[in-house]
Description:
With 155 residues, the protein is α+β, with helices and mostly antiparallel strands.
Amino acid sequence: MQVTMTVNGQTVSRDVEPRTLLVHFLRDHVGLTGTNVGCDTSSCGACTVHVNGESVKSCTMLAVQADGQEVTTIEGLASAEGELHPMQKAFQENHGLQCGFCTPGMVMAATSFLKENPHPTEAEVRLGLEGNLCRCTGYHNIVKSVLAAAASAGE
């Protein structure tokens, strides 16, 4: 099947098998490998992207379901000039990563979360990110990063 979508501001069209998952489309057909495949069961959130501005685990969505949609991956958060998105910057400044495998999904989920709740408490951040797993158990600094991004948005 032919699918066409906007990925990080660029229109892409590819022929794919109908069963191709969005995560594999992004990685294998578009070459954007920042979106990780962690579990293939929607349990870990490493594959989180934004579809039309909403946080989606891309291992749960077929590429054909994203046909005509706007998709943003971790590579699309930074500005065209290379300036980090405030959430990426907060993760960097607050050591919100260890091995880094969960980081793209955490950053994407956290940016979506802050759109819905721009001034969260620590408990709300923990609850809001519960669908994303960090195998290094780096949650303390991940939560700290999200709270720092929320605080910097209010400045």
